[in-house]
Amino acid sequence: MRPVIGISTYREQARWGVWDQPADLLPVGYATSIERAGGVAVLLPPGSPDGAAAVVARLDGLVVAGGADIDPARYAAAAHPRTTVWREDRDAWELALLAAAPADLPVLGICRGMQVMAVHAGGTLHQHVPDLVGDDAHSPRPGTFGEVDVDVLPGTRLAAAIGDKGQVRCHHHQAVHEHPGFVPSARAADGTLEAMEDPGHRFRVAVQWHPETKDDAGLFRALVTAASSSGA
Predict the structure, then answer these.
(1) Confidence of residue 232 (pLDDT cuts 50, 70, 90)
(2) Exposure of 204 by Cβ count < 10 A (0-12 exposed, 13-18 middle, 19+ buried)?
(3) What is the rounded distance in angstroms from the CA atom of residue 211 to the CA atom of residue 220?
(4) How far apart are the first and last CA of the chain?
(5) Does the pLDDT of residue 230 top 70, yes or no?
C-alpha cells in the first residue's frame, strides 16, 4: 500500500477564474514530487491545533512546507525590521503537528519547515541572512530562487539520499541558528546552515532549499521509503 504523506499548506488571498478570496494552497511541486516517489499526498491546511493529533495519527509521513517567516515571539526574540507578515495560524498549526507526531513518524522540513522544526525543538533563527553573509544570494528577488552550492556532510541521512554536494534552489532570508537535537547535514559556502537532521531518528530531516522545484527525487524517495516502513 502506498504511504500517505501529509503536507502543510499556505492560507492566502488568491485569484483563480472569477474568484478572489482566501484559499488554502500549495505549489504543485510538493504533491507531484511525493507522487513520483511512490507516495500519496494529502494537503493539511491550517486548522485548530486541537485537531493535530487526529491528523498525524492517520499519516505515514509529514512534510512541513515553505512559506512566510515565523513569529519571532515563538523563539523569544524581538522582530528584525525585515521579519514581516508571519502567519499565526500556520505557526500554531505546524508546531502542533510536530508536537503531536508519533515518535517514529518520518518528517521532512522544507525551507520554512526547517525553521519550524528548529523552533519546535527549542531553537532560534537568524532573522536576516544578508546581515551575516553580506549578500542576498539565498533570496535574490521576490518570486525568484537563488542557485546555491551546498556541501553535504558525509555519513548523514541526507548524503545517503542526495549525495555529497550539489547546487540547490533556495529562497530564504532567514536561517536556523540553534537547533537542539539536530545535527548539521549541509552548509553553503558562506557557512549558512542549509540542512539538519535528527541523528537518533530514522528520518527526521530538514533542508533550507526547495527540492520540489527541481528534478530532485532523492529526498522525497527517502521520505517515502521511510514512511513505507513506519507501520503507521
Answers:
(1) very low
(2) buried
(3) 8
(4) 12
(5) no
Helix 88-100 and helix 112-120: axis angle, to 10°? 60
CA count, 13 A, side-chain hemisphere, 135:
9
- Catalytic annotation present for 212: yes
Alpha-carbon distance 19 to 207, whole Å? 34
Q: pTM score > 0.90 for this model?
A: yes
E-strand ranges in 74-163 read 107-110, 124-126, 146-152
What Å distances lie between residue 52 and 9, 12, 92, 95, CA to CA? 14, 21, 10, 9
Instruction: Indicate which residue of 111, 138, 171, 194 is catalytic.
Output: 111
Q: Give the pLDDT confidence of 49-108 residue by residue, as tens digits.
A: 999 999 999 999 999 999 999 999 999 999 999 998 899 999 999 999 999 999 999 999
- Residue of 94, 194, 197, 212 marked catalytic: 212
* Alpha carbon distance 202, 75 (integer Å): 26
The catalytic residue among 120, 126, 171, 210 is: 210
C-alpha cell at 31: 504533491
Domains and CATH numbers, the chain: 4-228 (3.40.50.880)
Cell of 53: 493529533
